[in-house]
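note to self — DONT lose this again. spent like an hour looking for the file last time. sequence + predicted structure for the chain T wanted, 561 res
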Amino acid sequence: MKGFVFKPRLFSTLRNYNRQTFMADLMAGIIVGIVALPLAIAFGIASGVTPEKGIITAIVAGFLISAFGGTKIQIGGPTGAFIVIVYGIIQEYGMSGLAIATFMAGIFLLLLGIFRLGTIIKYIPYPIVVGFTSGIALTIFTTQVKDLFGLTIEGGIPADFIAKWGVYLQNFATIDPWCTGVGILSIIIIAVTPKFSKVIPGSLIAIVVMTAAVFFLKQNGMGASIETIGDRFSISSEIPEAALPAINWEVIKKLISPAITIAVLGAIESLLSAAVADGCIGDRHNSNQELIGQGIANIVCPIIGGIPATGAIARTMTNINNGGKTPIAGIVHAVVLLLIFLFLMPLAKYIPMSCLAGVLVIVSYNMSGWRTFREMFNNPKSDVSVLLATFLLTVIFDLTVAIEVGLVLACLLCMRRMAETTQVSVITDEIDPNADTDADTHEEHLAVPEGVEVYEINGPYFFGIANKFEEMMADLSTDRPKVRIIRMRKVPFIDSTGLHNLENLISMSKKENIKVILSGVNEKVQSVLIKNHFDTKIGNANICSNINIALERAKVVIAEA
């Protein structure tokens, strides 16, 4: 394919690789692997799958994203952003549905990278990103209320946000003080750890301390009501056999929407993480290659029982802060997780569920970006409306609806702004050449000959302004000119609706025996006009480079008439 180059960042970084760089990558990879462990377990459970599936995803995706991605220090794996969408897919389509949707999302990501569409993702409006990120954070927090407070709820928890809180309030009297204490202490430990330790993550300290404390309590006949991972799941340290999901056309049609949501979310989060990392290390990532790496990871993960993965900002920053230099650090992090999975996984059954809930409460708080959310209210009302719409739709409905509606709303508002900035004016007497960049004279004024009207279009000539121009023409007086000059010096582009509108104007003018002359047409717009045969419709002599030529041409046309 023309322009496509498969060039993972790993290959270029290995050219001048040395022992010193390896030792830096080794230490950073070990630390990131330890940091990723509790998060992988927590994200797996919160997503509705078993703990080992979260770790398997971190291992496989972490390795593949580092090996085939387009950044030096990106760390991939399961993230909090996927919790809501993964849980919803499992509830509706089951684990097989999740595997197929993830596999399809991986193909979409791969194609985005191959067709060099990585830069397009960057144009998604910021209010949409903030809105659905904050919405996901609130939804994650909501899913952890039961485990955080040890609530006893009969009949299961509804998926709907409002109904879920209704059930919580109805059953809040069943709060368990032991679970609540473990959850609150876990949150406190995680919150205060950065004040005295920049290396060991607070989530790991909280899990080790609270797991040991709960084990001690249970050994001494206390805290029997504290539920652990082992009470809810059977823990396995065996690597699952690879199996391709069964895909047919009916399944594709059914899962196309969630697959696109996974792909879009994964692309946005991974490229945001890569951009943040670039700012920290003074590097520049290859967005298309990064999407290829993300695509490969999401194609392989479901084959071995994993869940969707993307670039993880928190783990990437941990990698940077601990000296990671190349993708080798991400590969080491995956190897560390693999060793923990093979030899220490049985110990995970002692981790309290309320402690993991505390970990996810902190994740949701950090993810919420509430300060940014609050500051967005200082922006134009259109941005605020997109922000709130995306946020509320994410919380009340789901992420798929939120992204779709948010993008449509943002596009409509953008088009409205463009239409508002494009102005149309009519000149019937004289033109000030000193204010007109396409005039090649410095006389005081350029006289508009009698029988000539000059229309100025200032801005893009697209469907948002075409009707406005047509309405203005219809509202003019009954005194018809002999020549209409349409001044397009400030028209950067013209779309199909603008072309159709212009063609209608020419046809209408011909019926009224009025000549149309175009003035100040730039090369880009002129090439579009010629491709659509406007040079034959109005005559090549009537497409003029500046207003002086257009006015002289108008005089000739009037004289010939």
